[in-house]
Design a protein that fits this description.
Layout (H helix, E strand, L loop, with lengths): L2 H6 L4 E6 L5 H10 L11 E2 L8 E5 L2 E2 H13 L5 E5 L1 H5 L9 E3 L9 E3 L6 H16 L2
Parallel strand pairs: 1-2, 1-3, 3-5, 5-7
Antiparallel strand pairs: 4-6
Helix pairs in contact: 2-5
The protein binds iron/sulfur cluster.
Iron/sulfur cluster binds next to helix 2 and helix 4.
């Protein structure tokens, strides 16, 4: 395993991009970061710049405007950048499947490393997603 990937198993820094969500997914992400669920115990930290992030967390329906920004964020992220789609809108377009303004699920725009479905997914599901992502990095 290369050094960068190995370091990702210790401490994931996360940048959150919300593209037209209803905000329930975003609130559940905040919930996962509170002391009750305490994602920071895994070394996970929310950062304010994609240039400092290892993980790009995406919520909401990807609109045409949002797709442009998502592509730009992915290009600006240090590589390897792990993209995690949170919520059914981000994973599959969900109820916006036939919307004229839906540019696609996240994996139609950038490569996705993990999917956390649900409307919205619970903090427990997010923790499970993170554990699976780290396990996939270590190959265990
Ligand atoms: S998946 Fe559900 S909770 Fe999340 S942004 Fe879409 S509609 Fe809202």
């Amino acid at each position: 395993m290369n050094i960068k990937l190995k370091s990702l198993t210790k401490s994931l820094w996360v940048f959150h991009f919300a593209s037209a969500p209803c905000n329930n997914c975003d609130i559940e992400i905040l919930d996962a970061l509170t002391p009750k669920y305490d994602l920071e115990r895994f070394g996970i930290l929310l950062v304010g710049s994609i240039r400092h992030a290892d993980v790009l967390l995406v919520t909401g329906m990807i609109t045409h405007k949002g797709a442009e920004r998502l592509k730009r964020l992915y290009e600006q992220a240090p590589k390897p950048c792990l993209v995690v789609a949170v919520g059914s809108c981000a994973c599959s377009k969900s109820i916006f499947k036939d919307s004229y303004n839906a540019a696609g699920p996240v994996d139609g725009i950038v490569p996705v490393s993990a999917y956390i479905p649900g409307c919205p997914p619970k903090p427990e599901a997010m923790i499970m997603g993170v554990v699976k992502l780290v396990k996939s990095l270590t190959g265990k």
